[in-house]
Every structure is written in C-alpha cells, then in structure tokens.
Amino acid sequence: MSFKYTPNTLKKLEGLYEEARYIIRYERGNFNSGYCILEDKRVVVINKFFSVEGRINALLEILPTIRVVEDELSGEMLKWYKQLVGESVSGPEDSVQSQLEL
Q1: How far apart are CA 37 and CA 83, in angstroms?
Q2: Residue 26 and residue 24: Cα distance in Å, rounded?
Q3: Radius of gyration over alpha carbons of the chain, in Å?
Q4: Calpha distance 101→13 (Å, rounded)
C-alpha cells in the first residue's frame, strides 16, 4: 500500500488510533525512538518536533505493537488497518518505510 505523507493521512491515522481507543499526545521528551507507548493507559506519546512524515512513520511503527479490537473499528478503518498491519508483518527484515515505497 502506497500513500502520500500529507496532513490528511496523519488525520486518518489519528482517527484509527482514536477508534482503537488510544490517545495520541505530541510532547517534548527524550525518546530514543521518537515515541513512547503507555500500554495500561492506552496513550501514545510522540515527539512534538517531528514533521508530518516523522509522525506518520512513528504511528505506523507503533501500530503492529498495540492491541486493537477489530470489532470496535468502523468498516473503512478496519479495511485500512488490515492493509497496514498486513504489510508491516509481511517481512520481518523489511522496515515500514521500505514497504511503503518511499
């Protein structure tokens, strides 16, 4: 699946996390990977100094690692979620960036 790194794509990803009952916060901090996940509180904290592309990449890296109840997602989001997760787990040696054909 190939898509453009635009603010609309970021909003769609944020909507996916919202439907999965995760809160996304953009904060300042010393994150080695650029993000932090608080599993128990269902909060994802991303470095606020990231560009739109960096924020999208961080959210895509996090997506396969969080618990998402597929029954809670709407039809369109469920389809998009399966496409994103299906591609990110297809090759263990491939990064999300290379799979999205940058």
Answers
A1: 22
A2: 7
A3: 13
A4: 18
pLDDT tens by residue, 14-23: 999 999 999 9
Helix axes 7-19, 75-88, angle to 10 degrees: 100
Determine contact, residues 77/42, Cβ cutoff 8 Å.
no
pLDDT tens string 22-35: 999 999 988 888 89
Closest-CA residue to 68 (of 25, 7, 29, 15): 15
Gap between the Cα atoms of 92 and 8, Å rounded: 28
Q: Number of helices and strands (H, E) in the chain?
A: 4, 3
Please report which helix (H) or strand (E) contains residue 26, including its range. strand 23-27
